[in-house]
């Protein structure tokens, strides 16, 4: 059955900028008016309301069944006093964001849009074949809307009632991005907009801008509170290195935006809490920029325009190009190899041996990540690569070390190893050697380099081809937190071990078993560790366009620290937040739903490999529990966190292998 598009659907599709993966930047008030105007116009076409010069009249208050339209209709039906269209546009404009969210969900359900991590959208492949808009099997929904608009504007055809879309798009001031408008066509657009009463109401609402100040920067912005240093020094969370808990504590006392003035470092403006998380996730791309604070770090690797520092259309293009390499599907297709590489590393462990917690877990992750991502073995140099990355981050991002610390003989030697990684990758990625091999990340990157050498120049290959070795540092640190949590909680250790034994005793599990109900405890356990000990607790951005957040003005150029994971320790989101409780993620609680649970970040820079990381963590933990018994060494060790440059257990954590429970396959 063919389903037609609503005017809201058409508006959203027309605003989509496929190049950037998001929507053309439209002033908030104008966009909100256009979205509500589209809802009212659709209700008018459905004969639920009517308009005249003075009022908007309810004809039928019966629900339409459309979740984006019915809340609007209910409010109109509940109003005892008859109002005009402009009144309703202005009153409902603050609710436009929820209408957009519902519309995006509908378009994804219809397989017209595809949603990507980081809140990017693109036309789904099926959208090029489906006639959801007209019954025709030719063209896309976007092309259909644009064709109808062009006929009304350029061919002087009598406007269809649905051509109010022209007024909506004109309100958003994006017609000029879609068509080249001369003076005659601009006059035609103006005439069309005046023909419809709701269209005229939209124009009046935007023009008069009665409620506009709530969507613009305020001249009476609140003063950002300054944290008292003694408050920080007395905090037990500061002493333990638990940054999410520190920022949650400060947010509770100082509010969602506050400033920290360290005596020997730059002042820090911090955003913390669910409201600021939501703002960053939805609006950060228009106001914040990653490039500024990463410029010096890029130079360490000899690159410019690396993925972590990109924003806007280039960032989306880059992510979209390599997204398949970071998918869990690609890892699942190589599950046998993944298990074999992990077992090879475990075969180097001996009963009675005591291993450094962080180093052991990093090498275990890298054992599979390096060969599966770039088809090389890098176990002999991965420790040096991690030390180089750690020093670079502390020097140029955390700024806790002077720059000359990257010029020591040891660091110069490790810097050369980055070039060696590139040489190793290139040496095994010749056409003959790759024939018949499953595609890996290096294949995707080298293809991108060949297709556009300006977008991914040779100077950037040092960083991008060594990225899996860098990623194994972060994922390994998370695994070390998870392993410590498992070994220190005997009751949960037994449950994870039971799941592991059920999966591995007879034969290797398939991918469905690893991701299904058979590993329910393990997956919820990992989620709780990532809540309490997220390895990347915050992100840093520079304000590119001045903005207002929760009533506080952030001027252009200022640097902000977005404490995304502060919500992990907020009692209204996670009751008793310092209690380890894996039942938080079961129905009916489901405390992880929303922007309160964010171990992988928020917004456009959400971790690209989050789903793959989940599988790396779960599978390695299950194998460790099946084959070995671990003890924490020393036995009286109390977890301490090293917070910079990312969170990890401190160097004193060690694991002793007290038993080998099952023989490792050769």
Commentary on this structure:
A hairpin with a 4-residue loop joins strand 3 (49-51) and strand 4 (56-58). The strands form seven sheets. The chain has a five-stranded mixed sheet with strand order 7-8-14-11-9. Strands 10-18-15 form a three-stranded antiparallel sheet. Strands 1-2 form a two-stranded antiparallel sheet. Helix content is 49%, strand content 10%. It is globular. The chain folds into two domains: 7-215, yeast vps74-n-term truncation variant fold; 272-660, Cytochrome p450 (Orthogonal Bundle), CATH 1.10.630. It starts with 6 loop residues before the first helix and ends in a 6-residue tail after the last strand. With 666 residues, the chain is α+β, with helices and mostly antiparallel strands. The protein contains 29 helices and 18 strands. Helix 15 packs across helix 20 (382-396) and helix 26 (490-504) crosses helix 29.
List keywords for this structure.
globular; Cytochrome p450; 29 helices; five-stranded mixed sheet; 2 domains; yeast vps74-n-term truncation variant fold
Gross geometry? globular
How many structural domains does the protein architecture include? 2
What is the CATH topology of the largest domain? Cytochrome p450
Q: Strand pairing plus helix content: what structural class?
A: alpha+beta
CATH class designation of the largest domain = Mainly Alpha
Terminal CA distance reads: 55 Å
**Number of H/I helices:** 29
- The biggest beta sheet, please? 5 strands, mixed
- Kindly report the average pLDDT value: 89
Corresponding CATH superfamily of the largest domain? Cytochrome P450
CATH architecture type of the largest domain: Orthogonal Bundle
The side-by-side strand order for the widest beta sheet comes to 7-8-14-11-9
Number of strands: 18
The poorly predicted ranges are: 130-138, 210-219
User: What percentage of the residues does DSSP assign to strands (E)?
Assistant: 5-15%
Helix percentage:
40-55%
Radius of gyration: 28 Å
């Amino acid at each position: 059955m063919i389903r037609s598009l609503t005017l809201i659907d058409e508006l959203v599709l027309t605003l989509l900028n496929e190049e950037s993966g998001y929507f053309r930047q439209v002033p908030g008030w104008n966009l909100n008016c256009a979205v509500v105007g589209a809802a009212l116009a659709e209700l008018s076409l459905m004969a639920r309301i009517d308009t005249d010069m003075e009022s908007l009249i309810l004809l039928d208050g019966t629900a339409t069944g459309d979740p984006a339209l019915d809340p609007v209709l209910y409010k109109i039906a509940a109003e005892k006093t008859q109002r005009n269209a402009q009144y309703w546009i202005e009153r409902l404009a603050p609710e436009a964001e929820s209408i957009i969210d519902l519309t995006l969900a509908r378009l994804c359900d219809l397989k017209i849009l595809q949603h990507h991590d980081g809140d990017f959208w693109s036309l789904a492949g099926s959208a090029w074949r489906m006639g959801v808009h007209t019954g025709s099997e030719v063209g896309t929904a976007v092309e259909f809307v644009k064709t109808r608009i062009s006929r009304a504007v350029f061919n002087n055809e009598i406007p269809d009632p649905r051509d109010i879309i022209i007024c909506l798009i004109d309100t958003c001031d994006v017609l000029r991005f879609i068509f080249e408008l001369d003076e005659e066509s601009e006059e035609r657009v103006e005439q069309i907009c005046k023909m419809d009463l709701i269209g005229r109401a939209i124009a009046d609402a935007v023009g008069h801008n009665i409620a506009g100040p709530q969507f613009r920067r305020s001249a009476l912005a609140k003063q950002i509170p300054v944290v008292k240093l003694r408050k920080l020094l007395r905090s037990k969370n500061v002493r333990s290195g638990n940054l999410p808990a520190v920022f949650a504590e400060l947010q509770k006392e100082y509010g969602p935006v506050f400033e920290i003035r360290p005596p020997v470092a730059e002042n820090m403006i911090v955003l913390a809490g669910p409201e600021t998380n939501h703002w960053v996730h939805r609006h950060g791309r228009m106001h914040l920029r990653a490039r500024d604070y990463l410029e010096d770090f890029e130079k360490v690797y000899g690159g410019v325009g690396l993925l972590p520092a990109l924003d806007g259309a280039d960032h989306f293009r880059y992510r979209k190009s390599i997204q398949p390499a970071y998918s869990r599907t690609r890892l699942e297709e190589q599950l046998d190899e993944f298990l074999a590489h992990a077992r090879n590393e475990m075969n180097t462990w001996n009963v009675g041996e005591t291993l450094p917690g962080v180093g052991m877990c990093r090498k275990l992750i890298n054992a599979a990540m390096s060969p599966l991502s770039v088809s090389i073995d890098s176990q002999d140099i991965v420790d040096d690569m991690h030390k180089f990355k750690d020093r670079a981050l502390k020097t140029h991002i955390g700024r806790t070390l002077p720059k000359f610390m990257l010029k020591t003989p040891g660091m110069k030697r490790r810097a050369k190893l980055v070039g060696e990684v590139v040489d190793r990758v290139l040496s095994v990625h010749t056409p003959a050697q790759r024939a018949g091999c499953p595609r890996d990340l290096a294949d995707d990157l080298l293809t991108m380099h060949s297709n556009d050498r300006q977008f991914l120049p040779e100077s950037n290959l040092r960083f991008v081809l060594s990225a899996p070795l860098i990623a194994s540092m972060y994922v390994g640190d998370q695994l070390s937190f998870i392993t410590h949590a498992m070994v220190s909680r005997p009751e949960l250790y037994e449950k994870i071990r039971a799941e592991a034994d059920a999966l591995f005793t007879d034969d290797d599990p398939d991918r469905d078993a690893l991701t299904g109900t058979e590993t329910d405890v393990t997956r919820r356990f990992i989620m709780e560790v990532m809540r309490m000990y997220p390895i990347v607790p915050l992100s840093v951005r520079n304000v590119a366009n001045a903005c207002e957040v929760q009533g506080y003005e952030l001027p252009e150029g200022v640097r902000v620290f977005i404490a995304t994971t502060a919500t992990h320790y907020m009692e209204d989101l996670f009751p008793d937040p310092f209690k380890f409780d894996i039942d938080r993620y079961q129905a009916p609680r489901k405390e992880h739903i929303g922007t309160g649970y964010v171990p992988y970040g928020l917004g456009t820079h959400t971790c690209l490999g989050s789903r793959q990381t989940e599988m790396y963590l779960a599978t390695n933990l299950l194998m460790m529990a099946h084959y070995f018994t671990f003890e924490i060494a020393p036995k009286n060790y109390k977890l301490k966190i090293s917070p910079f440059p990312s969170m990890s257990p401190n160097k004193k954590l060690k694991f002793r292998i007290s038993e080998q429970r099952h023989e490792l396959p050769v």
